Amino acid sequence: MSGREDEGLGPGPGPGQGQGQGQENDELYERLSAFAGRAAATAGRGRDPVNAPMIRHWCEAMGDTSAAYRGPDAVAPPTMLQAWTMGGLSGHTEGTGRSAAYDEMFDLLDGAGYTSVVATDCEQEYLRPLRPGDRITFDTVIESVSPRKTTKLGTGYFVTTRTDVRADGEPAGTHRFRILKYRPARRKKDPPLRPRPVINRDNAGFWAGVAEHRLLIQRCTDCATLRLPWLPGCNACGGAEWDTVEASGEGTVFSHVVMHHPPFPAFSPSGEGGPYAVALVELAEGVRIVSNVIGVPYDKVRVGMPVQLEFLVTDPELELPVFRASEGG
Known about the structure:
12% of the residues lie in helices and 36% in strands. The protein contains four helices and 16 strands.
């Protein structure tokens, strides 16, 4: 009986799979391949015998309700094979952990820059059921190291270990585990994006206007008070009904701040993250809006500066109202 569980990169890439990279000059592989067949752990002993509480916890976590794992004749789920060999947070007792050869191989990979690791898949073979009370012993061998491979994650080496598990001295199963030790691929950075506005039922009309290049101001139909930003009710009389008027686009800088830290490249024309000016613009209609002033350096923005509404496409999915000023304005 055998089982397989894939992790990380999907279907298990064996030592001969993947795309090779410069294998004819892969001196590191020549050194790594010498570890194949060497012990990764010897005379390992399970921290606890097979026991009903661990079986119960496993079944509850996995949602496995099979009657085979309960009662006086219960057996352990076969896929728990590795669980009985694990040392937990405190590790195995002295002399039963991983070997010096295993550490030496990892030091060699880390020293060459292959410092990241991801589990790719595991295969298990079950030779006999495990029952509560069984004492677990095991040995682990470095079964193979692949030539250098290039994956979407980066370039590295697949390392396969095989653990032979015994229960009270009898062969109980084999656990084969494969990881990729790799140097992460350099990825092209996406251009920084401005934060997305939160659009809800109270302000959806405002953003619908922006999409049409119109800056809409709410107007209470009871008292004619204008309000911006949009609110569900009038903050002057409490009226719930409203309509809109379109802003002319003319305004002046009422106040402003210059942001130096933290840097935010999406708000900086140079893309370097700042500094940049954030202004409170008073519109000709008498309401105010927070926005960016463009067209002048951040240190030229001043109170009272006249500005004119524009609509700026910041990325393919976002357009925002901003205000342009002239340096001599």
